[in-house]
Write a structure and sequence with these properties.
564 residues, mainly alpha, three-stranded antiparallel β-sheet
């Protein structure tokens, strides 16, 4: 019994001690700061009595009693006098709303401070839109050109290309290809070789090189591309080039300004919400916005991964197309170099050389014609006019099952069989096989595409992210209502425009690189096969028209001189 009584006393003592501890922890301890020097309690009490809104206590020694709906002299802990309050706000940022009505001038100034940056973004968007519209009117093809160009996809294969022997094509297409068709080729000028007069020679300059680069586009107006050089890097010149028509950045600058405009008005909405909405409604909106922002974070990860993979592979593909053109040019040079070993004693020999020259150039022309807008719609008329094609050959080419290029390749094979012998014939056939393989590689590369599911997924994810960016600024602290209300958040708006514009510029570049020879869709990024053909033709002329040197006789003469 004594033992049980002692146990009961011990349990009761433990419970009492714990309750005492709880009461000691829960008891509020208010530390009142000493009143500052010169503090006038009577004046401050009268000042507090004149405050009619909670947020008006900002910058005073007053607090707000929500239950009594009036201001009292106090601190964050509570009223400092004998008054009591059931619901006390000791700091202005704790008020249900952060609105304190002042004079009309103060109200107007707050709205000017809130709306000036969104209006700047609006005017910036309008200015860039008008600017790009003016540039578009300057570079946009005519209605007739667009009707023809839109009927063909220049990023697909060369099959099913047919034309008539009498077809000349649109005048605008021939005018854009004067670098190639501007010179009349004749057998007489071909036979003159190095003695050909300047007015009969092939053009040595083109309107633009095979591939444009930053140095070419940064040369002075009127300066030839061939005289451009890699000068010192200047940011102003780079930006000027980047904003030109149909460049990736230039095409997205208007959209980036629109994103900045939307983001600035969204920030303005949040500044008004932080000032006029009650705390509960504000917190509900903040939670919804933060949830949208939480969606944007994984979207950015997915977009970064997909874009990095696709962009790297697409740029490598573009360089492959570019390099394959140089390889194709080298194969044609090999064929011309071997054909140049043919004797040139009679007119028949010269006609044979001229035929090789014409058929090699026709093969190169028909390789790039289906993919190049300035060449695609030309019939055989310009080729007949410039002398590369004869009328009886045009009648044969128009009956080709696939494309005229396959016929010209067969003609090259027949020429080698008829005019070369022994080792020269074997080497020529090897060069012809490599030429045909390079042609197939060019056509296969242009046909190469990403799977539809991947490409559509990439576009949808990027556009979804760009649509979410203006309404989910990631670096805004919504928990600090005063900071949201008072800040302009310029850096946040610029970040939305730069990031969204960057994603849209990448999408523009990747979409237009699918047609690597389309000078209308991507005038600065498209390759110019006419420059490649002109360069190839000049070298073929040299190989096939240079006088033959009797190397054996020269070597015998040297041996005789050494013996003497």
């Amino acid at each position: 019994m004594r033992m049980a009584a002692k146990m009961r006393l011990a349990v009761v003592g433990l419970v009492v001690s714990q309750c005492a501890c709880v009461r000691q922890v829960a008891r509020p301890v208010i530390h009142l700061k000493p009143e500052p020097v010169g503090f006038d309690r009577v004046a401050e009490r009268e000042r507090c009595s004149k405050i009619s809104q909670c947020y008006c206590i900002r910058g005073t020694h007053c607090g707000w009693c929500e239950s009594a709906n009036r201001s009292m002299l106090g601190t964050k802990a509570g009223p400092t006098e004998s008054e009591t309050c059931a619901l006390w706000f000791g700091a202005a940022q704790e008020c249900p709303t952060l609105y304190c009505r002042g004079t009309d001038h103060e109200e107007r100034m707050w709205w000017v401070h809130c709306a000036w940056f969104p209006m700047v973004c609006l005017f910036g968007w309008i200015i860039t839109y008008v600017w790009r519209a003016i540039i578009r009117a300057r570079y946009q093809p005519s209605r007739d050109e667009l009707a023809v160009l839109n009927s063909v996809n220049f990023s697909t294969g060369a099959a099913a290309f047919r034309t008539d022997a009498s077809s000349k094509g649109p005048e605008w297409a021939e005018a854009q290809a004067t670098d190639f068709f501007g010179t009349k080729r004749t057998f007489e000028s071909f036979r003159k070789g190095m003695g050909c007069p300047p007015d009969e020679r092939l053009p040595t300059k083109v309107s633009r090189p095979y591939e444009l680069n930053l140095s070419d586009l940064s040369c002075k107006p009127g300066q030839n591309y061939e005289k451009s050089r890699v000068g010192p890097h200047r940011l102003s010149v780079t930006v000027q080039v980047a904003l030109q028509w149909r460049t990736a950045l230039g095409s997205s600058v208007t959209k980036a300004m629109f994103l900045m405009f939307v983001a600035s008005w969204f920030i303005m909405f949040w500044r008004c919400a932080a000032r006029y909405l009650d705390l509960a409604s504000y917190q509900w909106l903040a939670m919804a916005t933060q949830e949208v922002g939480a969606v944007a974070i994984p979207l950015q990860t997915a977009v970064g991964m997909l874009l990095s993979f696709y962009a790297l592979n697409r740029i490598a593909w573009y360089w492959s197309v570019l390099m394959e053109g140089h390889i194709l040019q080298g194969r044609a040079h090999d064929l011309g170099m071997i054909g140049g070993a043919l004797k040139n004693d009679t007119d028949e020999d010269w006609h044979a050389r001229y035929m090789l020259y014409r058929h090699a150039m026709l093969t190169l022309f028909f390789t790039y014609q289906p993919f190049t807008p300035r060449l695609r719609f030309l019939g055989f008329g310009p080729l007949l006019k410039c002398g590369l094609l004869e009328s009886d050959e045009a009648e044969i080419l128009k009956r080709a099952h696939r494309s005229p290029g396959t016929v010209t390749e067969s003609w090259l094979s027949s020429w080698i069989e008829a005019n070369l012998q022994d080792e020269s014939r074997q080497q020529a056939f090897q060069s012809l096989r490599e030429l045909r393989a390079s042609i197939s590689v060019v056509q296969a590369l242009v046909d190469q595409r990403a799977p539809v599911s991947f490409e559509s997924l990439l576009y949808i994810v990027v556009y979804a992210l760009v649509a979410i960016l203006p309404i989910s600024p990631s670096n805004v602290d919504y928990s600090n209502r005063e900071a949201v209300m008072e800040g302009i958040h310029v850096a946040t708006v610029f970040g939305v425009g730069i990031l969204g514009g960057f994603y849209l510029a990448l999408i523009h570049m990747l979409r237009h690189l699918q047609a690597p020879f389309d000078h209308i869709g991507a005038p600065h990024d498209a390759l110019n096969p006419i420059a490649l053909m002109n360069n190839t033709e000049r070298k073929l002329r040299d190989y096939l028209t240079l006088p033959v040197v009797n190397s054996r006789a020269s070597s015998n003469g040297k041996q005789q001189q050494q013996q003497q």
